[in-house]
């Protein structure tokens, strides 16, 4: 599984995938890292806010305020994982 190959970011990837899966009402196994947030998973601005809140609760950090994936320069799940990992590091939070 690709998530396992991500090493320490595996925790972040599992949290992101879990938050997306809960929000979209789908199985975590069906959320691929290369899935496009808007096109493949129908993550709109409201869903992005809800996913951000879920990730704040799961990982204990402050998510960026932007609601749209494109505002954050995000296209794929993997890019969201990378953003969350960077924010955790910037904020000194260990998942």
Short description:
The protein is mainly α.
User: How much of the sequence is in beta strands?
Assistant: under 5%
C-alpha end-to-end distance: 20 Å
Domain module count: 1
CATH superfamily: ACP-like
Largest sheet: none
**Low-confidence segments, ≥5 residues, pLDDT <50?**
1-7
- Total helical segments: 4
Provide the CATH topology: Non-ribosomal Peptide Synthetase Peptidyl Carrier Protein, Chain A
Please give the CATH architecture.
Answer: Orthogonal Bundle
Count of distinct strands: 0
Order of helices and strands: HHHH
- CATH class division: Mainly Alpha
Q: What Rg do the Cα atoms give?
A: 12 Å
Characterization of the model:
Helices cover 53% and strands 0% of the residues. The protein is mainly α and 95 residues long. The protein has a single domain, classed as Orthogonal Bundle (Non-ribosomal Peptide Synthetase Peptidyl Carrier Protein, Chain A), CATH 1.10.1200.10. The radius of gyration is 12 Å and the shape is globular. It starts with a helix and ends with a helix. The N terminus is likely disordered.
């Amino acid at each position: 599984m690709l998530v396992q190959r991500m090493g320490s970011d595996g925790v972040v990837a599992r949290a992101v995938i879990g938050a997306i899966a809960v929000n979209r009402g789908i199985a975590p196994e069906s959320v691929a890292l290369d899935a496009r947030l808007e096109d493949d998973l129908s993550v709109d601005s409201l869903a992005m806010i809800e996913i951000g809140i879920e990730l704040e609760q799961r990982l204990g950090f402050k998510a960026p305020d932007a609601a749209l994936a494109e505002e954050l320069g995000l296209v794929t799940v993997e890019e969201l994982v990378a953003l969350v990992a960077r924010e955790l590091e910037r904020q000194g939070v260990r998942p």
